[in-house]
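Hypothesis: this fold can be encoded by more than one sequence.
Test: take the structure tokens below, design a sequence, compare later.
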């Protein structure tokens, strides 16, 4: 996935992840769980949605995987009361290996951070039992377009450019057609792939963008420049900050 993994501030992310939780509940509702399944939470983050998944499978279990060590540690501390019904691990989803296939894969706000969707879908397909479902949502084509332009403009500022020059792509906002093709090449029966517009105005804009949208940029900047970079990006956005999201939804199944 490119350069070294940049870890997240899990506690800060958990505080501001209200929209991700709300949208994730909608995706979760598409799974149609009976209550005894084993479900993979692909990109479990701080564990907010992992707990909700566990509540939906009281006779089953949830496996949560995330590339961020701090996210998994935070989730472990918050989900300890669920005992062995929850398994959490640090890992790259493009290298996913499961001891036993799962009944369903759920993912929210994760796939757009992974550049190689072909390999991602292949590993998820391998991890599903025949007939198992994949229900996911992530950033899609056109996602936060104004926000992206504000970041690109700030990257050109002479204060920040030497530190950010050569920075690899941070996200993959894929289209409906290319996503469908990649899923089909991986072996999935694709039921539906579609885009959905969402709007969110964070109550604390600075905390939200530091914790969600600028993590990888801030990790490359010296401490003395980080607040200035946040100011530069926010200064190019209308106030109050309103983010125009385009969510890519996936409903697919492994053939029985």
């Amino acid at each position: 996935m490119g350069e070294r993994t940049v870890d997240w501030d899990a506690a800060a992310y958990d505080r501001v992840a209200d929209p991700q939780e709300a949208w994730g509940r909608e995706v979760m509702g598409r799974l149609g769980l009976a209550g005894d399944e084993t479900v993979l939470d692909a990109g479990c983050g701080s564990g907010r949605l992992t707990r909700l998944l566990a509540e939906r499978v009281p006779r089953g279990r949830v496996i949560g995987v995330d590339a961020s060590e701090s996210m998994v540690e935070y989730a472990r501390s918050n989900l300890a009361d669920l005992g062995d019904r929850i398994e959490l691990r640090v890992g790259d989803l493009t290298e996913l290996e499961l001891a036993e296939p799962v009944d369903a894969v759920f993912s929210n706000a994760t796939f757009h951070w992974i550049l190689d969707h072909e390999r991602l879908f292949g590993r998820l397909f391998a991890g599903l039992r025949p007939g198992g479902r994949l229900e996911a949502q992530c950033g899609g084509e056109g996602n936060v377009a104004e926000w992206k332009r504000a970041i690109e403009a700030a990257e050109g500022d002479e204060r920040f450019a030497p530190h950010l020059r050569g920075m690899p792509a941070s996200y993959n906002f894929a289209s409906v057609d290319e996503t469908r093709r990649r899923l089909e090449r991986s072996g999935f029966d694709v039921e539906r792939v579609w885009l959905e517009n969402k709007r969110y105005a964070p109550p604390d804009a600075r905390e939200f963008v530091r914790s969600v949208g600028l993590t990888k940029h801030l990790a490359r900047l010296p401490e003395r420049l980080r607040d200035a970079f946040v100011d530069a990006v926010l200064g190019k956005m209308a106030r109050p900050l309103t983010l125009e999201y385009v969510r890519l939804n996936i409903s697919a199944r492994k053939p029985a």
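The CA atoms of residues 105 and 134 lie 5 Å apart. The mean pLDDT is 93.
Hypothesis status: open.
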